[in-house]
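Summary for the steering committee. The consortium agreed at its last meeting that each partner would contribute one worked example illustrating the joint modelling workflow. Our contribution is presented below. We chose a case with several input lines so that the handling of multiple components could be demonstrated. No manual editing was applied between input and output; the record is shown as generated.
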Amino acid sequence: MAASFCALALLRPAALDRYFQARLPLFVMADRGRTATSLCSLAVVLMLVASGFLGSHDPLANPLPLVVWTVLWVGFTLLQGAVGHVWYWLDPWYGIHRFATHMLGIRKFRAFPRWLGLWPAVLLFLGFAWFELIDLAPEDPPRLAAAVSAYLVATLAAMMVFGHEPWGRRAEFLSVFFTMVARFSVLDWDRSGDRSVSLCWPGAKLAAAEPMPASGVVFLLAVLASVSFDGLSKTFLWLGANGINPLEFPGRSAVMTINSAGLLAAIAVLAALFFLAVWLGLLIVDIGSLLGSAGLLIYSIVPIALAYHFSHYITALLVDGQYALVALSDPFGRGWNVFGTAHRHVEAGIVMGHDSAWAIWNAQAVAIVSGHVLAVVLAHRLSLRLHADESKAVISQVPLAVLMVGYTLFGLWLLSTPSAG
Amino acid sequence: MNRGSTMSDKTISTLRTTISRRSTLKGLAAAGGLIAAPGFVRYTQAQSAAPIKIGFQAHKTGIGAAYGRWYERTTNAAVKLINEAGGINGRPVEIIVEDDGTDPKRGAEVVAKFANQHKTDIVYGTLFSHVVVGSAPTAGELKIPYYVVSEGYHVASGKMNRWCFQPGITDVRAQVTSVAPWVSANLGKKVAIIFPDYAFGHDHRDYFTPAIKAQGGEVIAQIPIPPTESSFTKYFPQIPAETEVLYHVMVGPAVLTFVKELGEFYGSNRPQLFGFIDSLEAVDINSPGLEFLDGSHFWEGAPRYVQANDSEAMKAYRAAVGIDDNGAAVEDAKDVSTAAHMFGCWETLYVIKQAMEAAGYQGPQDRQKLIEATEAIPGFEETNEHPQGDKVIDGKLHQCYGHQNISKVEGGKLKVVHRTEIKDGFYEAEADYTQMAF
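What follows is the complete predicted structure of the assembly.
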């Protein structure tokens, strides 16, 4: 990684241009039918909520927890990162919002206060992360169904007041996150132009992104920090430091306070380190605004966030993904076999044994390292937008590159250190 | 009571008297069992065709999930057979699963949900000790029978309540006590114990030390390892040179490192090794790094690998649960089962069936009768319902005693070389639940 940074420092900007600007046109895709796909998506969500309330209480037999925590939060995030903005079509609020505003004759919405930035999204994500990582039973189907219902209704209500697009861009955390992640993907859809879909290099679209406000910076760092903290909180180091015997892990109820504090601290520490690195970079070259630079350089964190997402959740995805296939065939526990997968054997051994451990560890390590290498490349490219002088652009990224090397080592350590559960 | 005290002669003779009385009762119970076969009049008189609801407090998530998966698989296999044979008292059995997250607080909530929301007849199936300890008070308050499959000593310690029972798996104290005679006679008398420094390790230290002493042996070193330790070489010099047997009960993700480093420390000239399979439950014994264990011995509740002399009952049980000759899932050779423990689910369900039939159980109003009926079961023979072997239930302790297996690692498999006697596990009882109010 350090080597990649040095290599970049020697590269001419024109060489990088080819990586970021190369496009291979594939096909044209019309922007039609979003209302229909969104309504279908909503119907699926409502069906899942119903199965959460009425189906099996077993979190590995009920499709709701499996879809929310595995298919959506893990699988869909990676899908967005790979192929692009699928969420644009599947956002469950778009269709119903359009329908409801049309029926009620609502044409004007209250202006979303600019000063709020993306802070509502940060807060809502914190609630989500707390529920996922710290709540006593986030996988309990009725409990999750209640949470999802409340969020669905509250979001729709907020969108009725502020509009679908402003609320989705600033407050609805899934839309905010999925939109950020989609910029990493290898498909580039020129939606407002000629509607062409082109192939591009991973992360190429990020280089052209608009700068984010400080709240947006904190948002992405909060996602990355929460995933990292989930890993950290299970390590022998963290448990030992908190006086908890990792061989006799007492359960979530015993670590709610320390993990709540830990989650907030992890976000605060990562955000502080990021702003510090950007600030130090500016200090060296003596030019530029901290918020403006951070708002642009944050996009270099997207590949890292995706890499952590992949590495941290890959084993869960491999096993719980199979449970999801089974559960979706019989969502209400009535012996149905809708997709013919109800009696499929869940192969838990897929993540067991020496060979699997070796393969998974390598996949994780490759993801983490290549995510960070891409991040360095992106940071370099983005800093060229900030600093006309190429040498200043290179020097200004040194502190951020150091942070990224440190985070790579931290990520690899997380994967290899003993952990409980 | 001092856990370290040895069993007095008086206690042993009392136990012998109890056993002979039990043998008589056992004969009666067996006769009762024959009468209560499918077709018995009680079936046709069943007042309700509604299912008997068993709330399965399962470790679906959290640190117990690997065990939980196999506990569920065993449970489903047993319930399928019970239902095919006519259910309990003419009523089908329905398992209702709630995930306790392997958490004591959630465990208590789940027990309350079973009692108040699902209105199950009983709660069953908990493995991890801290969940049992956290949930038992709620079961007691709500007066719902709570059958655990935990192997912990907490039930027999007398610290639970009248509603909490462990009739289908022996407790760790009996397990540790019962292996001492064989270890002393076959492996050596000078034993060093290396154990993780917390309750689980302390149980082994505190129960094995007096047990081996009673056999004329001696624990010459007790070496605690901090639970957060991930490298062990620095502790090995504490093992005395004259050690004949190294008794090890390390658990957790560092076990492979422990074994590997032990191998590097000793090379080919090592003392005898004796361990508990808990260290490697659900782990392939042929994992790289474990070669050093070849020729060493392990305790097993039920054997993981198929044995040449397996009983018909054991064969039928393995086939029903769906484990192959190596103790892995028949569909997935890498998915190694928790064979040493999960038979306890199967056997506990058959105890529940036997007790419900003896009590003429009809519904929650008969819960007290169910507990009394379970307390009255003297034990059971080795049958398809109890494939791990015959057992004795101490109604006062709410705990069963049974045979234990000592297996040798040979050619990458565990081969049973000794089966302990039930009496080898007896210890001085500390509790009498029958004196407690409901």
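The first strand of chain B starts at residue 52 and ends at 58. Residues 1-45 of chain B have pLDDT under 50 and may be disordered.
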